[in-house]
Amino acid sequence: MCLVFRTLWSSRLHLLFVLAVAGLLPCRAMGQSSASNGKLVGVADAKIGSPGHTQEKAPLKVTLEVDRHSYRVGDEISGEILLKNTSRTPLYLYAEFDWGMSGSDSLFARDAVTGTDLPSSLIGTALPPPPSSKDQFIKLLPGYIYGVEFTCSLKELGVAKKGTYDLLAWYHSPIPTRYGLGLPIFSSEMGAIDAKPTRIIVTD
Fold it and tell me: How far apart are CA 48 and CA 99, in angstroms?
């Protein structure tokens, strides 16, 4: 099972500090709202693919970071999915992060040689209930970063043999605008935002 260990907060000035102390307690920037740690839950195997585009003018920038770029078959992989508010106004994100298009984050591997998407077990199965409180959203100020850390096995990403693979991640809100409780949320209507692919090499 792939789980988020903690949420991460940072301003532009503190990004390098957060990455340097990734093993410590969460870093929360002054003025931001708080949220409980999210869980990213692995469920039944299925095949997923990229949304097929990156939204160049989207108010968020998505970044995928991994603990290293060389693994052995059977290893676990740890990393972070970071969301940066690139707009000039505050933006609210749904606080409950989960895997799959019914959740907030998608992560899968692609064979870098053949271009084949591998079957991932990190697929959500049900949409969350409509938010009942504004406290279920995270206020992300302009230039600030919110993120989650994850750890999962390469097997959960469909990587079962040596080779070169690209890890792809994207963020998508499961909440429509009409359930935003009047807040300027990043909604499901805004689509999915890709992170730049991260290449890894897997050996025996």
Answer: 11
